[in-house]
Amino acid sequence: MSRNNCFDVVRLLAAIAVIYFHHSLMFGMEPPKLDKGFSIGNIAVQVFFSISGFLIAMSFTRSSNFLIYMGKRVKRIFPAVTFCAFIMVYFFASFYKDNIFNYVTSWDTFINFLRISTLYGRNVPGLWSEISSHTESNGPLWTLPYELVMYVILGASLSMHNSWKTPAFLLILCFFVTTLFREQLNSVGAYYATFSTLAEFGLCFFTGSLLFMTITAWNTLKVRVNLIAISLILITTLRGGNDMLAIGSIMISILVIMISLSFKERFIDGRFDISYGIYIWGWPLQILVIHYKPFGISEFVPSLIFTYLIVVIASSLSWAYIESPILKRKTQLNLNKDAV
């Protein structure tokens, strides 16, 4: 697929929106929202899942088998989050321990590191308890198990039946779970992923996948404009209603994909992708900025701007020295396959 799109910019804006959302909460402010359950943070996550579903379906079609496909996904997710977990567990947390040596060499500390690195846990006991009321070690990581589970579901399903009907079936399944069984499945799940939330995110993810698998049937400017108009009309109409969660999520996903394919940019253009780094580094760094107030910064806007600055630096370093080298290595090993 050509680079005549703006997926990179849209993902970057979504990552920026997540930081704004969390910064607002940490300052005791009410973030903007479209509707109940559709805050700017929720919508940003839906944007991520929508684009991910589209691009991951593309990644599968460019992989010769399921193992190569999953290898790409593992190399994209885990190296960066493992390094972030190491810094949180062994560097940040050690500053708040009475006996640093005992903490660093503790088996429990190593287990916490492994759990965060494998997305099976999100908390380092006592990490922020002395400096923040937000005790989650890295709040945004809670969505990554859902992302990983959907990678497996989509890849395994397409391996058995490589057709547009596969994501269509998965989308319908998510729709019925969300509309009929959401409350019953709210506490049932695995790998820190409940079935109800998995279905909610799946509405966006599998809509994106379905759109990719059917792209030759609809990818014209006229169709994209019509779909954008229909999505906006339905989102506006459904606001405040019971159908907003299910149908509204699908419309947001369609809107995101149509807009991303209707514009092209040349600033990023595949040269770098720091959106993932921004997503995983934003929470711990903004907690530190808000508590320690560097350069006397205490107001919301200056604090947010300074947070963006250091998060962009951290995510750029993560991209340059961790993510990009691994992706390049992957490309060299599979010269006939494009990486996503």
From TrEMBL:
Lineage summary: Bacteria, Pseudomonadati, Pseudomonadota, Gammaproteobacteria, Enterobacterales
Biological processes per GO annotation: polysaccharide biosynthetic process
GO cellular component, one term: membrane
Keywords: Acyltransferase, Membrane, Transferase, Transmembrane, Transmembrane helix
Occurrences of domain Acyltransferase (ranges): 5-314
GO molecular function, one term: acyltransferase activity, transferring groups other than amino-acyl groups
Pfam families xref list: Acyl_transf_3
TM region(s), chain numbering: 9-26, 38-57, 77-96, 142-161, 168-185, 191-214, 221-238, 244-262, 274-292, 304-322
Protein name as it appears in the record: Acyltransferase
